[in-house]
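One chain is below:
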Amino acid sequence: MKINNMVDAKRKIGIVGSGSWATAMVKMLGDNVLDKEILWWIRKEEDLTYVKTYNHNPSYLSAVELRVAPENLYLDARSVIQKSDIVILNTPSAYLKDALRDVSAEDFQGKIVVTAIKGIIPDENLIVGEYLTKIYAIPLTQIVVIGGPCHAEEVSAEKLSYLTIAGKDATNAEKVAEVLRNRYINTIISKDVYGVEYGAVLKNIYALAGGICHGLGFGDNFLAVLVSNAIREMSKCVMAIDPEADRDINASAYLGDLLVTAYSQFSRNRTFGHMIGKGYTVQSAQLEMNMVAEGYYASACIQNIIQRYALDMPICNMVYQILYNRQPANEAVKQLAQKLT
């Protein structure tokens, strides 16, 4: 399938999602100097009305001014996808199927389809790129993955940040990088689509583990050991899934994203884990947070990967036992501590 030529034409970039990361991405696009048009799907009608009136998202990153023409705000994701050259999917993984419920495979034809979603589709047990290929028949060459390390809150404050843009087709990856790049966003091009996407899934689980340990009272010394074991565990997993890829596990998309998610005050997965470590139930922690912790859903989904490839991943297993089998957190961490090196 030939991708629309965007060299001379005005680029039309569609965002599907209206949470904090999607809002930060709208800001990135608005601050990019290229001639382009931004189209944005917003889930709640009251939020769309507010953005149309005040140029701010009232629910997420509410202080950030957003540069989107009022006529380009939609409650209909299909219209955004049909009218865009580049489609950026940026909802929590658990909500993507609902967001795309009226969208057909034909609507994605000729588009570069970007996933900025750092999770696995529940029930399907597929990363977003695999889901798009299976359900919408989108060729892998048309799919681009956005990796970190990058927190929405720091993007909104215009702090210098780096994004990894991964695509099997380097030309399409560069087109996506070009529209996101601005004075505070640098981009790194990669061909490791599976590694970047699975790495983003796994780092949320490891950040959740770090939060659990912190909530239990473990200090920075232990967390450093946990994270160093986590990056080796991640390497083992992505190598099993895609052993032929050219990747450096110590690069920003893998180790960098793991570090910022495990340590940052802005990490929702670390916060969620901290609450679990403090004794919250999963349900009470979810109710108290205003944002989705992708690591919760990923923890269950990644078990299928562990079983499929017969992998030894004790940190992922510990998180799963705590969240889904209700093993006491202090007991699970003590067992894990005997396995760390």
Observations:
- Residues 1-8 have pLDDT under 50 and may be disordered.
